[in-house]
Amino acid sequence: MAGPNGFTLEATDSDARAGILHTPHGDVPTPAFMPVATQGSVKALDPADLEGLGAKIVLGNAYHLYLRPGDEVIKSLGGLHSFMAWPHPILTDSGGFQGFSLQHLREITQDAIVFKSHLDGSIHELTPEAAIRHQESIGADIIMPLDVCAPTGVGRDEVENALEMTSRWAVRCREAASRSDQMLFGIVQGGSFPDLRKRSAEFLISLDFPGYAIGGVSVGESKDEMYQATHVTAALLPSKSPRYLMGVGSPEDLVEAVAAGIDMFDCALPTRIARNGALFTPDGRVNVYTAPFRYRDQPVQAGCDCYTCRTFPAAYLHHLFRAKELLAYRLATIHNLRFVLRLMEEMRSAVLDGTFEDYRKAFHRSFVPPDQERRHSQKRKWLKAQGRPEVSERDTDTSGE
Amino acid sequence: MAGPNGFTLEATDSDARAGILHTPHGDVPTPAFMPVATQGSVKALDPADLEGLGAKIVLGNAYHLYLRPGDEVIKSLGGLHSFMAWPHPILTDSGGFQGFSLQHLREITQDAIVFKSHLDGSIHELTPEAAIRHQESIGADIIMPLDVCAPTGVGRDEVENALEMTSRWAVRCREAASRSDQMLFGIVQGGSFPDLRKRSAEFLISLDFPGYAIGGVSVGESKDEMYQATHVTAALLPSKSPRYLMGVGSPEDLVEAVAAGIDMFDCALPTRIARNGALFTPDGRVNVYTAPFRYRDQPVQAGCDCYTCRTFPAAYLHHLFRAKELLAYRLATIHNLRFVLRLMEEMRSAVLDGTFEDYRKAFHRSFVPPDQERRHSQKRKWLKAQGRPEVSERDTDTSGE
């Protein structure tokens, strides 16, 4: 049965949790991964694909959608669900993270994040109230407050300032929110400082949000710092409420964050690296663009239940990437999203069966994450190719992901 | 029952025909449109999409596939059907047309078309025997001889030379062809000269091919010239054999060519213009990129049975094109291919019912083709953007279509 906050906690296994998130557009079994549809489309996929992959909820970005096509377009089409033909749950991010990541940020005042549009250079002031208004207008099931995210490496003062601003804006967002069919989550900031995480979480809990997000992670910090901040913060949050770790989504991070008690995730990484030919396997990432795949007559991942692996030899994907055929991006995205969504399904089963720790160990025995240095260098290379500074795995660019 | 040439003529209605093409990978009801998969992929679509659209046969280009991924890759993967996971009929073109269209053509000798690869600058001599060897190696159901195609606007001498070369090469291709499970068609050349078309057709018929293609059309000539050449040539061909009009595929041309007695078509136009936002409707083309579609809450074509029209408001396609989302190309391609494939299905039914002339008239009453001058200017603009000279609707570029 749904609690008043729209979440039912079904089982725990140590800190890992299995639950159900209830929304007006349907239930979402947790832990859940939300594919990223920044501009109202999970890149290269259609809604039938997403249903086939087992996605139950997707994430859109209200700031991007406000700039294009505009709230009034989406509203006149009956809201974001109708517009993108996704009749299932949607969460929208507010645009706060874009204040951290977009090159087009102008300034952050006490009242607003001021952006210069990447589309036409126009200036937009995003106040907490406007962030709620945009999100109420397009009508996602779960909406996010405007928050301020401090980059990694800055001092405690800056992290504290971001936290305090986030707290004040959380109050304003809560007051501005008027739709009873939407859940507005709180976002915990506080960087890598456990006492600041505690201060932020306690303040938000005092406001009694129906769900809590952990922000300010996956912003350039080391994996250990990220895991610690996640663990510390998750432990502060009420067990009855859903917990959403923003911008995290490599397979190894998903496993560790579920172990820490997180219920919801979004990340552009699985879809973005897919479009570069990097595909997940139980042993780690492989890149089908590379020479060893030229004659590979086996699927990318033997036994994988995704359409791509059930249908094509890896050599065909290799060819499609080499020939820059559009189908390459679609097939690779299908595989990576299915890999991540299946991982979530398996973790959920393991929690329900009380075997999560075994699952976690087995996963790490097999899955070798890319070396962090290599990972960062790949990321820098990719961002450089896009003309952007290094930031994070979250949707940071003008085009979305 | 299949004739020895793999074709059963089921019905005629004036000159229009309905039949069945028999191949080792299945039957193809005709008239049939073959979506273009130059490099082994119909751009932006997967095989399940194509099946859902009602495609029964696709076209690949043996010259492109020889350059990349290479015959030996496709062969080691079990042939083109396995490689691209398309277990249905395939026709491959030889590369002769690329001798007409590619910027990388070096020369045409008595023995071969000499190309410089667009991939690595290497020189490749394509003899008639090599064209057959490549096509036998990758294993399509229907293969094409190496032919020589004269551009429009050249004198009778050049057209005649191309024809004579094509005839001599047809003999060599026929002698080189050794696989009994493949049908090698003959290609009629002769440009807009009825007596040359007659000479070419009679020579090829004396060699008794299991099917005949009409080449040297859709190479820049006017629609009237193209219709006339089609009509004249179709009338010369044996009624028991399938007739394939190469490189033709705008809706209005398909209707006129079926009226002239053509059974098979291929063309990159429906898929190429889709990727520019130009979509077919019963009234003609519309471009969803344009402002009137911004708020359009109806599908692109009311009542269309394609996934795109059944699922999305036109405003969503407009947004996807504006935002350069990959899904735009897929959804637009699905619509245009379904439009063309449904047109073929409807023409076939009309022939079987003896109502083809009514169908043809009703089609033309509603469908307004783009003005030829506007069409040519759009084409020039598109080719210029690709850095290429104007040529034709056939697959002319280095990347395929």
Protein architecture, described:
Two copies of one chain form a homodimer. Chain A has helices at 47-53, 62-67, 71-76, 80-83, 96-101, 128-138, 156-176, 194-207, 223-236, 251-259, 269-274, 307-311, 314-322, 326-353, 356-366, 372-385; strands at 7-13, 16-23, 26-30, 32-34, 58-61, 90-93, 105-108, 113-116, 123-126, 142-143, 183-184, 186-188, 212-214, 243-245, 264-266, 278-281, 284-287. The first copy, chain A, is α/β, with parallel strands linked by helices. In chain A, the strands form five sheets. In chain A, strands 4-15-14-13-12 form a five-stranded parallel beta sheet. In chain A, strands 5-6-10-11 form a four-stranded parallel beta sheet. A three-stranded antiparallel beta sheet of chain A has the order 1-2-3. Chain A is globular. In chain A, 55% of the residues are buried. Residues 389-393 and 395-400 of chain A have low confidence and may be disordered. The A-B interface holds A 39-41, 43-48, 68-69, 73, 76-78, 82-85, 294-295, 297, 307, 311-313, 315-316, 318-320, 322-327, 329-331, 399-400 and B 39-41, 43-48, 68-69, 73, 76-78, 82-85, 294-295, 297, 307, 311-313, 315-316, 318-320, 322-327, 329-331, 399-400.
Q: What is the C-alpha radius of gyration of chain A, as a whole number of Å?
A: 20 Å
**Regions of chain A with pLDDT < 50 over 5+ consecutive residues?**
389-393, 395-400
**End-to-end gap of chain A:** 36 Å
| Helix percent band of chain A | 40-55%
Biggest sheet of chain A, strands in spatial order? Answer: 4-15-14-13-12
Number of helices of chain A: 16
CATH architecture of the largest domain in chain A: Alpha-Beta Barrel
CATH structural class of the largest domain in chain A: Alpha Beta
- Summed up, the domain count of chain A is 2
Quantity of strands of chain A, as a count: 17
Largest sheet of chain A: 5 strands, parallel
Strand content of chain A: 15-25%
Q: Tell me, briefly, the overall form of chain A.
A: globular
The CATH superfamily label of the largest domain in chain A reads Queuine tRNA-ribosyltransferase-like
Largest interface: A-B, 42 and 42 residues
Mean pLDDT across all residues of chain A, rounded? Answer: 92
CATH-derived topology of the largest domain in chain A: TIM Barrel
**Oligomer kind:** homodimer
